[in-house]
Amino acid sequence: MVMSKSREGFQILEHTADAGVTAYGQDLGQAFANAAAGLFSLIIDLDRVRESLRRDIVITAPGIESLLVEWLNELIYIFDVDNLLFKRFEIAHIDSTSLRARCYGERVDLSRHRLKTGVKAATYHLLKVERHNSGYRAQVIFDI
Amino acid sequence: MSPRWQGKLNKIDDYRWEIPQSYKPGMNVPGLVYADTNMLEVIRQEQSLEQVANVAFLPGIVGKSLAMPDIHWGYGFPIGGVAATRVEDGVISPGGVGFDINCGTRLLRTNLTLKEIQPLIPALVDALFVQIPSGVGSKGKLKVDNKELDKVMLQGAAWAVERGYGDQHDLEACEESGAMEGADPAKVSPRARERGIPQLGTLGSGNHFLEIQVVDEIFDAAIAKAFGIQGKGQILLHIHTGSRGFGHQVCDDYLKVMNQAVSRYNIRLPDRQLACAPLQSPEGQAYFAAMACAANYAWANRQCITHWVRECFTKVLGKGRSELGLELIYDVAHNIAKIEEHTVDGKRRRLCIHRKGATRAFPAGHPDVPLGYRQVGQPVLIPGDMGRYSFVAVGTTQAMAETFGSTCHGAGRVQSRGEAKRGLRGVDVAKVLAQRGIQVKAMSWAGLAEEASEAYKDVAEVIEITHQAGISYKVCRARPLGVIKG
User: Fold this and answer.
1) Cβ B245–A70 below 8 Å, yes or no?
2) Which of A79, B167, B357, B395 has the CB geometry, 3.0–4.6 Å to B80, for a possible disulfide?
3) ipTM score of the complex?
4) Under CATH, domain B10-414+456-485 is a member of which superfamily?
5) Domain ranges of chain B
6) Is the confidence at residue B470, as pLDDT, over 90?
7) Which CATH architecture has domain A2-143?
8) Backbone phi, then psi, for A2, in 5-degree steps?
9) How far apart are CA B161 and CA B167, in angstroms?
């Protein structure tokens, strides 16, 4: 597994058939927001995405690691069904079993957006949410 | 890079290596890897063999946790793995099938030769690219509602044939005749339906493809003939896709269910992605019924694409169907769980066979092999990478005895997608292929670079190992002329 250069609070993890993200944050919310940005960076060059709409999301899960998977899979579902690309995330609330987020982005416009890779799902493999230095680190592998 | 796998392997013969059950406490059976020494060195560079050992933890697993020579590191299960569990008291694991339920390939034969088709390849590639929706988030041109989707889930390829997308012969040439039993649309979530409705009849992205190929090597002329492959120079058409967002959502839904089930049934696993439930439990039964729906969706998907491929050929070549051929040789799943009968320790048993990146390879005489092929065995379709070649092989009695009637499914990745992209640009990949007479069209240049030959093992080395080990015999090889990538 190789890590690419850090940027914007996340690193892309390379896994033979798939890819993952390690995200960092001063707090849990920031780590989860960065993980989501990492996910969309696999799909599209984030600089190409405008913030023209907002979608609010509420997630509940049995534990913090499942919460990370379900958060990311919710975003994949929204991308798949409503064709929304997000680039910025505000986590309004997070605890070990629930999350409330505001997601900013826009609808896919194939005249401007060059989509890179499809992401099938976030997986439970090598899944980690842990304290790191004075903040948090979240790691997830996607099926590409 | 991941650390090199340091575990112990016992050499059985030149193509078989065992991971002893004692390697890790908790393994219920040993692991068995099909590889030669060179391939083993490649495999050891990552942690896929650890995953073979982890799969051996599954309750009710019988025989061995198997790894085909194209094995590579997956998430939970290795890709290229086969695991058989007892129907009565074993488990079923969505991770042992994967997100792309019934991802598989189908191969069509034509009456065309290289000579007549060569000048028309660019036009054919263009037509296929326009007519068959591909790429990330691609939407299909079929209009189906929820009621119609229920029929897709129950009838599979037959749903498409009923709508005029193919004929009875297509169904006879599909694994399971293009529809698995046991599907129950009530076990599929509204979310899976939402993702499934617009994506029916789409190729998708990643490693999915359409390829126009030419036969360039025959290894067994008699069996090739039985498959309708007459000799070198014959044109084939290869389709590789699966159940799209529908299957991804079914897997995701049931991983959540299984994560809860693992504690309810007190199952201890080394990786959460192996989450499972007893096949006979409500959770296990529900997953099987939903998975069968997704498998049938995939067969319908490949059937619709087949129809559009035929339309494109008819239009571009100005010839009728009977003149073109374009008959289905076979259609196989390589991500699926099936209930099958096998002999274990001299006893006939009903087993749940998980094939995750592995192809069914039933021998001559097996009742599940279509009548037309029953004398020779089931066709096994092994796509390689887009710059080299693909193989057709045939199932064997050895596979039945050792691998629950399974063999490899492809080349297997050796490079991560990022590595491949850094080394190559999609535009250059297409240029190099064009110089070698292979026309490529792709929705994403980055996606194309990720799929370059360099990212894969040489499928010829993979197929040589399965051939030498006797778990499938090679029949012919075909190289690509035109490629459509998502």
Assistant:
1) no
2) B357
3) 0.92
4) tRNA-splicing ligase RtcB (3.90.1860.10)
5) 10-414+456-485
6) yes
7) 3-Layer(bab) Sandwich (3.55)
8) -120, 145
9) 6
